[in-house]
Write a structure and sequence with these properties.
With 206 residues, this protein is α+β, with helices and mostly antiparallel strands. The chain has helices at 13-22, 81-90, 95-106, 126-131, 140-157, 162-171, 173-179, 186-205; strands at residues 6-9, 35-39, 45-48, 57-59.
Amino acid sequence: MGVNFIVRARSSLRSVVAVTMLLVFSWQTDASAGMYVCRDKSGSVNFTNVRNSSTCKPLTMKKGQRRLSTPRRSATPGNYDRDIRRIANRYNVDPPLIKAIIHAESGFNHKAVSKRGAQGLMQLMPATARELRVSNPFNPRENIDGGTRYFRKMLNSFNGNLILSLAAYNAGPGLVKRTGGVPRIPETRRYVYKVLKQYKVYKSTW
């Protein structure tokens, strides 16, 4: 799965760092494919996964960044692979992506409850779970099914744009639509970065 996108940022160090943290350098099947940083005549910095200028230089992951971070508690990620594959394929979503979302949301703890009341593997809010007709959000299969259906809805709402869909899953589709992009919320930007990073890892080992 690949999305062609360009993020424009001012040439300040703060902007470069923020955008770089937001974007994982590639989530395509080809592990060698990456992101490029390009600077135009006005000094603006562009980040893209398509090398469209001779001024573009590849961005590479720092040593150790490919390492998979350890899920919280004593969860075993592989236990859910079969259900993830079956449910993700049902809704035409890449299974490693759903696994990456679960990793970021709950650390594979099917009993997880957030401070805001989000529940289960994919951290469904009670109202969202009711809307999705998930009777038991702590049931792994029900939760994965509901969460995947909801994420499919986000993809449909944002024309398949993976970054905006992930931001909407975290911060809500209304806020993403109002801001016209990823909201300037540190938690949401960290979330998008984390999911995309884990997606690349899980896709390479799926």
